[in-house]
Write a structure and sequence with these properties.
The complex is a heterotetramer, with two copies of chain A (296 residues) and two copies of chain B (245 residues).
Chain A lengths: L14 H38 L2 E6 L11 H15 L3 E6 L2 H12 L3 H4 L5 E7 L5 H11 L4 E3 L2 H43 L1 H9 L4 H40 L12 H31 L3
Antiparallel strand pairs in A: 1-3, 1-4, 2-3
Helix pairs in contact in A: 1-6, 1-8, 1-9, 2-5, 6-9, 8-9
Chain B lengths: L15 E9 L5 E10 L4 E5 L6 H8 L7 E6 L2 E2 L5 H8 L2 E4 L11 H11 L4 H14 L15 H13 L5 E5 L7 H16 L3 E5 L3 H4 L6 E5 L2 E5 L13
Parallel strand pairs in B: 3-8, 3-9, 6-7, 7-8
Antiparallel strand pairs in B: 1-2, 1-4, 4-5, 9-10
Helix pairs in contact in B: 3-4, 3-5
Classes of the chains: A alpha+beta (296), B alpha/beta (245).
The structure holds adenosine-5'-triphosphate (ATP) (2 copies) and magnesium ion (2 copies).
């Protein structure tokens, strides 16, 4: 029968230990949510980056701007396409169908019959080979069609990227606060336990128990309670994520695209109970050792 | 009753040696001043003195709960000044204390309380069961083995405390008013326990107010008065010891 | 000297009471953040609603769509303006200057010289009197200019509104969780205190103290600690809000407009410490009363 | 010493009346069975019996910490069965208890511990100061008024507990082994306190193992054995009472 592992401190069922458990549950739950927000914004940024980096949109002014020369522009578009198709840096190039241009402009110009007759600019989507600079291609385009406009989407990406990064940072900061809260909780709960069991600990000392034996008990207890609390927190997180995903699906996917989260994120979540447990164990051990040094 | 386990680590010289020890709690008025004391192995002493004279304080120096304000303290031949906490724990395992206020663990049964020193010393559980059961029967608590201290009477708690102090067959036994809550019949039976251990080689110190108890045993008295310790002769002449034990 | 108000339970400085204080700090801090997010999304919705409800945008097709009749459209615009200026439901009406239309289209069409010559549709902004339906005005416009398109911004508002409402709901849910956490914390901390002080309480009973005296002490303690913690939480919240506002300013104001928060929000924030205190007091009182009934 | 505060609420009949009271902790073996007891006002009884006989248990019925398993208990003329918790608190304020394990509040000074019953009864602070100071001097703790219990010796704690029990000049005093940790000189002085209160009209019950103490006072003995309570005559003849008090 192992004495230190079971029976000599009544810490298994005291208020403080149950308290650690449920508080860790709440903290891990919140940390999981924050981690998900952070991972989601990260994925979102990557998604946008991926769909935008290495792409250019070339805009060739509308065909009817100069009423006298109605056929000027198809020539410009053809020139641009011709240049790009043989350019070494270009991976893929295609003219955007007029219907898609109309759809893009719909929020601004409406979709009535009137619009379908509008003189719209021609758009060409260009995909560059990975790692190439946009400059060479841009120069080639401008040479072929001086009136063309080249947009590399940077302004827009920076703007939304700032927002997403801000959200991610707040989520990260929240996780930091939660870790600190966890440590403090364990320290306080351990101190409460120490106060509650001061007499018991003194007796144990007086009959020859070592500091390590006693600190080890508190630490093991904290490890167990925090890990259990962490698992409960994840158990709470799973359905919550489901509900949030359901709510998010009601929002337009252009606003919140359905990006997948990296495997590392799920690994992080799975490790949260362990992290909480180890953090709690460490905090308890240090607290108890320090307190014991002032005792008999 | 039989104590059938391996002996404690042997040592040379006196069990306890105090050299001009002072103790004061607030740094000003000394509770003990210039106390010299040598307790040889296998000795037996009463410790007397008025209430507040410093009996419990002196004992707490010996069981290493307090440190002398001045002077040196040797236990089992080792100087405790500057000893590590683990070292102190090791020394404490070799002595047994009956605290004036018992200090039992309320969440453990009487049996587990008595077993505590053995378990901390990692004694095999079979031995623990045998020794603890035998000892609890001796002090008259065969019925109360599974009772927790809050459900024990005052005298029953005191007997559990005594059993816990002697179960490890320590080389030094310090008993602080160990019979204050039991009647005379039980008191004599408990004293017999200390006397047997003393005969087997332990050094025993019993602090008490109970003059009638002191007068029944032929042991010298350590008397505390005004912080000074003096050795007084037994109240009962040594010749009659055979009639008692 | 008042006995019950100071000295007979050593609860002022025990671990549990300090614990309540800092945990309430964290909870109130998070509640304040959540309340702010909720109020901000509310204000945002109201802001959008206000700037959009009761307004219409009338789009009159571009002048050159039919090359044969180059002067058709100014007539249509004039007709629309004429009808609206005398319509009883209309508060204000104005033609959007061409420069502003160009600016609106800039993200889509670029800003080159080519665009400035584009045949753009004419836009008319209409503000309706509060409480009037858009139908009557729309009918009048369609009668005056059958090719006009009327946009009351509903689709867009609904889309973004959904998102903002979702965020607000999550913030509200968070506040609910926080309130629950606060209650549980106080209950657990009080139980820990009760366990720690069980002997003291028993003695107080045995010398004649009443349950109310004892429960009152715990409740007053909880009130004080939670209120203090709440104030600390607000003290932490103020600079945090500043930092977030700073971060938000880096984001485009079209994404996060600088809307003011309602006075009720600040009142709610100010009341958080009091709410926390009262909640804590109630939880402590109930917990202690129930526990005392099982004691001597 | 003078007790100069207003008298407790008067009542008719016996201070304590037990009618065929049973008490058992586990529902099976009774600790007390069919105990009948009437303590008249201004009475004095010793309570004797072996360790574990049920002395503390009987007292705990009287100070309302336990309820009889069967039978009825009247205190100060009032039946406690079904009394509200506030009513019980009111009754408890009219009695004083010396617990076998003292039950002092460690976070309060000796002075504040003794003052506790007065403050709970909302006695003016000037009166509190005077009474508590006087009483602590009487029990020999003039020096220790501001000391907290953990820094007091065993006998000092016991005296604080006694002072707390009598400070409110209660109509019923229950003392459980009140002199187990003090020497005989102090014990007699403390007994004199109980005797004085008894003469002033309080009913006193002193549970003790100390036969030499019992034999010095001419008071009847309540004796517990096998759960039965019997009334035994004083060990000392009543005639000599004048020489003691
Ligand atoms: N931790 C402490 N801090 C301060 N003073 C203390 C402390 N412990 C004891 N004292 C004081 O030291 C003196 C001696 O106390 P000690 O407990 O050694 O007496 P004792 O001889 O055991 O008395 P008793 O017979 O009443 O148990 C007392 O006046 C006591 O108030
Ligand atoms: N709370 C309790 N639960 C269960 N059993 C108890 C409880 N309190 C006391 N007992 C048992 O009741 C019996 C009587 O105990 P009590 O404390 O009344 O004895 P006592 O006469 O005061 O003894 P002592 O002189 O040793 O103080 C004992 O056997 C004890 O173990
Ligand atoms: Mg002592
Ligand atoms: Mg008893």
């Amino acid at each position: 029968m192992a004495l230190f592992g079971r029976t000599d401190l009544p810490i298994q069922k005291n208020a403080a230990s149950r308290f650690i458990q449920w508080l860790v549950m709440v903290l891990v739950f919140m940390a999981a949510i924050a981690a998900t927000v952070n991972a989601y914004t990260g994925s979102l940024l990557a998604h946008w980056n991926r769909s935008v980096t290495g792409t250019l949109t070339v805009q060739v002014p509308a065909p009817m701007e100069k009423p006298g020369k109605p056929n000027d522009v198809p020539k410009d578009v053809a020139a641009v396409l011709g240049v790009l198709k043989i350019h070494p840096d270009v991976l893929r190039v295609e003219a955007v169908p007029r219907a898609k241009v109309v759809a893009l402009l719909e929020p601004w110009l409406g979709s009535g019959e009137a619009v379908s007759d509008l003189p719209l600019p021609a758009l060409v989507d260009v995909a560059l080979k990975p790692g190439t600079d946009t400059r060479g291609v841009t120069d080639a385009i401008m040479k072929a069609a001086p009136t063309a406009l080249v947009d590399d989407h940077r302004v827009w990406l920076n703007r939304v990227g700032n927002l997403a990064e801000g959200v991610g940072m707040i989520a990260l900061a929240l996780m930091g606060i939660i870790a600190a809260a966890l440590g403090l909780t364990v320290i306080f709960a351990t101190r409460a336990s120490l106060a509650e069991f001061r007499d018991v600990i003194e007796v144990l000392h007086l009959v020859g128990a070592r500091d390590d034996d006693i600190a080890g008990q508190f630490a093991r207890r904290a490890l167990g309670q925090a890990t259990a609390g962490g698992l409960l927190g994840l158990a709470l997180y799973a359905p919550t994520l489901g509900v949030i995903a359901l709510l998010a699906r009601r929002v337009d996917t252009s606003v919140l695209p359905n990006v997948g989260l990296p495997i590392a994120h799920w690994a992080l979540l799975a490790s949260l109970p362990i992290v909480a447990g180890v953090l709690a164990m460490g905090a308890a051990h240090v607290t108890v050792r320090r307190a014991l040094r002032t005792m008999v | 009753m039989a104590f059938n386990r391996k002996k404690n680590k042997p040592f040379e010289g006196d069990t306890v040696a105090l050299d001009t020890v002072d103790l004061s709690y607030d740094g000003a008025t000394p509770v003990l001043s210039a106390v010299n004391l040598a307790l040889p192995q296998s000795s037996f002493h009463f410790l007397t003195g008025a209430s507040g004279a410093g009996k419990s304080s002196l004992l707490s120096l010996l069981y290493l709960a307090k440190r002398p304000t001045a002077g040196s303290l040797k236990l089992f031949g080792e100087d405790v000044t500057g000893a590590s906490r683990n070292k102190l724990a090791g020394l404490r395992r070799r002595l047994g204390v009956v605290f004036q206020d018992y200090r039992l663990l309320d969440h453990l049964s009487a049996f587990d309380n008595v077993a505590l020193p053995l378990r901390i010393a990692r004694v095999p559980e079979a031995v623990v069961t045998q020794d603890v059961t035998e000892l609890l029967k001796w002090v008259g608590l065969a019925e109360q083995m599974d009772a927790h201290p809050p459900t024990l009477s005052g005298g029953q708690k005191q007997r559990v405390a005594i059993a816990r102090a002697v179960v490890n067959r320590p080389k030094l036994i310090l008993a602080d008013e160990p019979t204050g809550n039991v009647d005379d019949t039980i008191a004599v039976r408990l004293m017999a326990l200390f006397v047997e251990l003393h005969k087997l080689g332990s050094s025993v110190v019993v602090a008490t107010h109970n003059e009638s108890l002191v007068s029944r045993f032929p042991f010298p008295r350590l008397h505390l008065d005004g912080g000074r310790l003096t050795l007084l002769p037994p109240l009962k002449p040594a010749a009659s010891i055979l009639g008692e034990g």
